[in-house]
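Q: Hi! First time asking for a complex rather than a single chain. Here are the components, and I think there are two in total. Is that enough to go on?
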Amino acid sequence: MTAADVLLIGLGAVAVGSGVLVVTTRHLVRAGLWLVVTLAAVAGAYLVLGAELVAWVQILLYVGAVVVLLLFAVMLTRAPIGASDDLDRPRWPGLLIGGGAGLGLAALFVAAYGATKVRRPPTGTAERLGEQIFSAWVLPFEVVGVLLLAALVGAIVVSRPDIGAGR
Amino acid sequence: MHPVIAYVTAALLVGLGVYGILARRNAILVLMAVELLLNGVNLVLVTADATVKATYPATGQAFALFVIVLAAAEIGVGLAIVLQLYRMRRSIAVDEVPLERVQ
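A: Yes, that's all I need. Here is the structure of the assembled complex.
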């Protein structure tokens, strides 16, 4: 039981606990704010696992951009601020499949890695990761650029009523 | 360091994401659940990077960065569709979306 283990257990408990609140709370805005807690805890776990750049990208992109977009959407759809009762469908299919998927995967990982112990990896700096992205993964990197452009154009076409679906 | 802790956390996040996608009616909450699921996937990738020896160094972290970028693109297009749905039908409940062709 090293310090890294304790940190991982704590951050994992925070991530899973606030994740439960994201999918069960009856307040739309609070779901977004609990999502911030989950994403921040996962970013902390990335730091413990030595993925420094991924952790900061997670904070910048997820907490900074994605959650803000989600909260904007909550407000643009005139969601009520208080609790709403019509946010959920019957729970049992989700409980069955979600619980099965989560617990099944957890059991698989415990069976595969339950006894594995590794040395804590050295903190991966942006330099090491950047070298890899621009040498081994440069083609996927370029393709992702094209995909982002396509997503941008698609979002504009969908949301403009004069050229998109609302015509 | 026991990587199984991070792996189990990631598996539980994936389970929560699947539950949220299936159980939520509000389309924005479904998108939030998708984010949870993708975070579980990313945690698996980063943990595998620390655990398993790959051909190239830092492969899992590079994949995690790609998944984060794809999630950003997904949330942009997804929210555009949700807002358009709200503009057309004044409701973003996913079980009220008409599956036949809208005239």
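A: Chain A touches chain B through 92 residues (CB under 8 Å). Let me know if you'd like any chain examined more closely.
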